[in-house]
Amino acid sequence: MDREKENTKQKIKDAAIELFSKKGYDGTGMRSIAKKAGIAVSVLYYYFPNKENMYDNIVINFFDEIITGTKSFIENNSNKNLKSLILKLLYLFNDLSDKKKNILKIAIYEIQGFGKKNILRDKLIQKFKENEFIFFHLLESRYNEKSESFAASRVLFIYLTSKINDIILKNKFEEDIIKSDLKFLIK
Fold this sequence. Notes:
Blueprint: H1 3-23, H2 30-37, H3 41-47, H4 51-76, H5 82-94, H6 98-111, H7 119-140, H8 146-170, H9 175-185
């Protein structure tokens, strides 16, 4: 793809990210994306045959990257203290660019069930469950009993998810509170 086509495709993606993050999947139309990108609707359809394809290309592909990156980070730092590992992971989410945070915001809204149910929501929920499994696996080896591992990892995953939601949706990262919470959550 030549430079001009790459630029046009990126303009479309940027416009879609902004609109999806503000209005959701259902509230965003192809015409509004084309208008925001400053292109004709026909040009938009040249790059993306429909809204579902665009959403899939932007949101689901990025969510895959996040899951892969999270898994890689955890595997590469498995020898670290669990508290510092989790804190570093939260720093990574906090340091994401605004554009990447907006993409995650779109995914979080879908996973939480805002808007009409669609096939893309099912894909995101499945990927979210895969991410949850990564944490179960991480904690499994740190406990003597499987039942302890499952319960502890579930609580920790829910806590971590809520803190990531705070970072992405509220732009709120309270390091001191998180450190204090982790002292309580992880013995």
